[in-house]
Amino acid sequence: MNQLLLPSILFIYFGLLLAIAYFTSKNASSHSFFTGDKKSPWYLVAFGMIGTSLSGVTFVSVPGAVSTSAWHYYQLVLGFFAGYFVVAYVLLPLYYKHQLNSIYRYLELRLGLSAYQWGAAYFILSRTLGATVRLYLVINVLQLFVFEPIGLEFWQATLLIVLMILAYTLKGGVKTIVWTDTLQTFFMLLALVVCIVTLQQQMDFSWSELWAHLQQKELTEIWSLNPSNSDYFWKHFIGGAFITIAMTGLDQEMMQKNISVKTLKDAQKNMVVFSFTLLIVNALFLLLGSILSYFALQNGLNYAPDDLFPQIIQTYLPSGVFIIFIIGLISALFPSVDGAITALTASFCIDIIGFERKNLPESERMRLKQIVHISFAVLFTLLVFLFKWYNDKSIVNLIFLIAGYTYGPLLGLFAFGILTKRKAPGAFIPFIVILAPVCCYVLSQNADLIWKGYQFGNEMLLLNGILTFVLLLISSLFSKATPTHETSPL
Fold first, then answer.
1. pTM exceeding 0.85
2. 435: in domain
3. How many domains does the chain have?
């Protein structure tokens, strides 16, 4: 394969994103950057959210994980599905009722400035770490297949990718992201389907024969019924539901596109359609993983799970399919980073700088917005360099673990605000939102000693949220303002 072919495809792809950014950012103001002027088509948001939800890590890791855990991941997906209905019919009405540009403003309305600032801070911390880890892992793959053959070093490739993302997100904001994510989701799903069909043809089985072989090798097993295992069905299902509630419904990146839709009814329609679509898409990723695992068994291959997909596609399938795979990988990379950097800019400007509280002229808002946006791009770059310097996958796992813990306090804060009418003293809130995840971490590290053989899974997020809620409830007993007589926030 010509060494310049894949880099050329990357630049053509980037040119397409720039063209979209040019047409969607005309006459863009700071308000349209954050809200899309409330004109985003719901069906585009629903389709584009698939790309945001399925990052480059998912694109490579979910198929690879089938070799060790079959379809157990789908238990989590079923939990996601249930959680999206809570987001659609509990959280979205709340955001539309208060006409929020930043969802964390709700915490200020209900619990005061301290809860608002800590909620926004946890989002900024979590999304920064999560997005940069995803960026680092995908750039590693692109470095191997795209940049190394043309002599670019890792740091040069990182700067190039970050500058690309910065170029098409700097001006348009949410309006641009809605359209670019739609395009990128299409290419990601195209790559997924092409790889599945090509592998099936390569193995020369009919679909029914192939499915029978996959079942025989226990590569399609969904249910895990041992309560002590971390992937036990109810741990995955309940944990998945609360992961969706916290990491979609309480996440500014995921919600900024939903609340850019004109009406609540359309936003709910978007969320429901998206939830059903994600069931199908995740099933396709797991089917791909089963086929890859069976292909590896047939040919005596012994790749690490995360290497299974790219190595088989590159080595054993036609070069045209590998090109489509790279396009799909690029398409998985950009939505997980461009949306994050836009949401972080919005959250920092609205929640930390206080655009909605300060009467700043539009020129000053635009100037500050651009400074913040560029600053996050620089931070992303530095963190990617840091991960590469350590070159230790355990650090990546630790970052994901820390990022996961940060959603527990958000879950507890929002649940306390929605389910009660009480007030918590602002002075107690910083102590509570730090104590809860620390206690959960200590508990998870000693789970085997406390409950012999028990392993915490995704239920840790729920436990974290419950502990935050209980501590807020206890602290509310010391508030002179309890109980409040305000109407329910819903």
1. no
2. no
3. 1
